[in-house]
Amino acid sequence: MWVFYLISLPLTLGMVVVTLRYFAGPAVPRYVVATVGYAWFCSLSIIILVPADIWTTLTGSAKGGIGFFWSWSYWSTFILTWAVVPTIQGYEDAGDFTVKERLKTSIHMNLLFYSIVGAIGLIGLILLLIMHRAWDGGIVGFAMACSNTFGLVTGAFLLGFGLSEIPRNIWKNADWSHRQKVLSHRVAKMAVKLDGAHQEYSNAIVVAQATSNQMSKRDLLRPYMDIIDNMVAQMLREDPSFKPSGGRFGENDMDYDTDDKSMATLRRQLRRAHEEYYRCKSEYMTCVMEALKLEDTIKNYECRDANGWKYVSSFRESRSGTLGSLLDTIEFIWRCILRKQLQKAFAVVLGCMSAAILLAEATLLPSVDLSLFSILIKAVGKQEVLVQVAAFVPLMYMCICTYYSLFKIGMLMFYSLTPRQTSSVSLLMICSMVARYAPPISYNFLNLIRLGGNAKTTFEKRMGNIDDAVPFFGRGFNRIYPLIMVVYTLLVASNFFGRVIDFFGSWKRFKLQREEENIDGLDPSGMIILQKERSWIEQGYKVGEQVIPLARNFNGVSTDIESQNVPLVRFHLH
């Protein structure tokens, strides 16, 4: 067991550190990074503990260490999710100028949240007293079961969506033609979105500067205005290439100098506009680079015989010498042949794993053990490493599917997850969601592993029986909600909901659009932008530096690329 820990825990810690470094924006404070990192580590620790818990239950080994780690991981995530993270999130989102005022704003913002949580807890306690039920885990166990019931139900639907979409998207994206069409449309949308964010950022700067100019040096609010002035100056110093343009005044944009709260609002809006602009710019740059590299890959494959099966990149100088020629050949084989086939094979493997999970969930109600994972764990018997690997791989896949759906839905409404430009507020909200769903996912997976007899893992004993927390479903709640999830997943895979929403045209605003929907050929605006970006890169500019004026001219573009009225990007391989 300790061998598994010695390998998995350092890998988990390393993964958390690398992920944070990759996504966290430059302005994220260290205490936010530390809080998010600790929450992620505790959440992943729960997932790592499940295989070890299964092993100790199968072998009847001592569980003292497992119990301690369960308590530490679970209660750490619980306290972070429901108390610490919301407070820090409100503090980071506040625009006030002192620590005390920012804390007051945060607490005021979270009062409704805390009131709802307290009301739910009170209702649960009243139900427990009314039913006079014998509860093996005590009130603490009942509270844990109630708090995780919401995660189990909503997590089941998130899991179902991910089980269908992840293999499907990987398979689709392996098709170069399909991916090129998707990227051309995404580049066009990202360029327009970047232009909008640029205008909002310019507006925020213009309003801040105008407010500063009309405020006298003896004004009582001048110290606050000086802080905002320094903030604007620092932003412009950090990115000399940014040139405010299109700034305009709204109806109430000159009313920020009335009191300290209005100044706090101005500061908050300026910070948000700054974060949104650089988030959009990062997404745009990532998308453009992927599209340009895909064009390179397609061109290299088409010219493979002429180039001697060597990869020629438009983003670097040609390699020289025998070793350089060998590396070019290896890169060609990987980018143009192997990667595409491996993506399809990986999609098939994940599709089979999704089917195995759905089969296991569907057979919980009839009490027939058709869970591939249960059979596999029993088959490897007393071999510790194999048992833990057989449990860890499907559990991690279930987590990835759930978090994929959670991030996709959340990024449409609540937060963003952008490489090197994710704000403190977004990181904290994501961290709260990750911590909230780790225990329910683990509990769901443990239901798929039938250990035989009355054997229960430490986690099941500590978490309590969910059946008793949901009395109106009776004793079979653990077996009913997975079946509902299976039906939901099959409906998602068959695009049933999309057809229903399309039938009722007025419901389309509620539809979660798939990226490839409404895509008919290459987007002309996107292809023009890619052509211009390649030209600017060859002239020594960075991606995104020149696109803002160009993006404002695409409203009237309706030319069909496939009719060849707009030239495709062409470049010469040397």
UniProtKB/TrEMBL annotation:
Assigned keywords, A-Z: Membrane, Transmembrane, Transmembrane helix
Chain segments annotated as transmembrane: 6-24, 31-52, 72-91, 111-132, 138-163, 345-365, 385-406, 427-446, 480-501
GO cellular component: membrane
Signal peptide residue numbers: none
Membrane topology: Multi-pass membrane protein
Compartments where located: Membrane
Organism domain of life: Eukaryota
Membrane is among the record's keywords: yes
Pfam families in alphabetical order: LMBR1 (PF04791)
Family membership noted in the UniProt record: Belongs to the LIMR family.
UniProt name for this protein: LMBR1-like membrane protein
Organism: Panicum virgatum
Classification of source organism: Eukaryota, Viridiplantae, Streptophyta, Embryophyta, Tracheophyta
